[in-house]
Specification:
It contains 10 helices and 13 strands. The chain is an alpha/beta fold. It has 2 domains: 212 residues, P-loop containing nucleotide triphosphate hydrolases (Rossmann fold, 3-Layer(aba) Sandwich), CATH 3.40.50.300; 63 residues, Alpha-Beta Plaits. A hairpin with a 2-residue loop joins strand 11 and strand 12. One of its GO terms (cellular component) is plasma membrane.
């Protein structure tokens, strides 16, 4: 059916050693959209995607990709799905161009290899064996292999990890084109700017469950909440200058973030309090919450 989700996960459970790393997860991704799956390390993102790709068998719940079971109906899905694994998953003993040409021959209507090579800058290492490629070069080659067959759904695990800024933006442009062609793009990423720039829908996963989802504007916007960022003397008890309803953090020494109903009165009150402490604000900005702010509020600021 045209309106059916490209990916539908319901109550997914996956256990390792009796511990559920994915615990009743629900997720929907649609064609012509980029769905970004975010979460701390160990949250269950990669395991979830591997269940969608048919690489792992769920212990509970259902996964349907284009209406098919990726474990039972893998042969039917293979020509319709592109996969870019976190570790590349590439054979290491062959040259880059030979590997990509081999993958292209598996499909009835592959993309033009010359155009794809130019878009992703593969020509500079086309004759280099995969084992000798840098991390960023392997990422580019893995992305090319994932999309060369014109998939209807593509899973991208950390697609721009290890890439320089120029290559990263080239990859982003390609992801947007895939979306505009009607492809369902499901990507995992630790880069908040990548998710904020590309995603139509964001799904935040922690402890094996979805804890928030929606468009970027719906997640970051609030009628009351703005973010005050300032740099001043480290170690100040800045929260004492504010009433209830504000969250204060000091992610780096002397760099403070205040989230809440920030208005001109709050800004004036904070600067007056700093003056009373003989502390000078060397930088002060007010803006909306970012996706990173939301992510940290949801999943915590402590290292796992």
């Amino acid at each position: 059916m045209p309106d059916s989700p490209a990916l539908e996960i319901s109550g997914l459970v996956k256990r390792y050693g009796g511990r559920a790393v994915v615990d009743g997860l629900d997720l929907v991704a649609r064609s012509g959209q980029v769905t970004a799956v975010l979460g701390p390390n160990g949250a269950g993102k990669t395991t979830t995607i591997e269940c969608c790709e048919g690489l792992r068998e769920p212990d509970g719940g259902t996964v349907r990709v284009l209406g098919l079971d990726p474990t039972v109906q893998a042969r039917e899905l293979r020509p319709r799905v592109g996969v870019m694994l976190q570790d590349g998953g590439l054979p290491t003993g062959v040259r880059a161009h030979e590997m990509l040409a081999h993958v292209a021959r598996m499909y009835a209507d592959p993309r033009d290899l010359g155009e794809l090579t130019e878009r992703l800058g593969l020509g500079s290492f086309a004759r280099t064996t995969v084992r000798r490629l840098s991390g960023g070069q392997r990422q580019r080659l893995a992305l090319a292999a994932a999309i060369v067959g014109r998939p209807e759904v593509v899973f991208l695990d950390e697609p721009s990890a290890g890439m320089d800024p120029q290559t990263r933006h080239a990859v982003w442009d390609l992801v947007r084109e895939l979306r505009d062609e009607g492809v369902a793009v499901v990507l995992t990423t630790h880069l908040m700017d990548e998710a904020e720039d590309l995603a139509d829908q964001v799904v935040v996963v922690d402890h094996g469950r979805v804890i928030a989802q929606g468009s970027v504007p719906s997640l970051v916007s609030s009628a009351e909440d703005r973010t005050l960022r300032l740099e001043t003397t480290p170690g100040l008890a800045l929260s004492t200058a504010l009433g209830p309803g504000f969250v204060v953090s000091e992610p780096r020494d002397g760099s403070y973030t205040v989230t809440g109903a920030v208005d001109p009165g709050v800004v004036a009150g904070v600067t007056a309090w700093l003056a009373a402490q003989n502390a000078l604000a060397t930088r002060l900005t007010v803006g909306r919450r970012t996706l990173e702010d939301v992510f940290l509020d949801l999943t915590g600021r402590n290292l796992r």
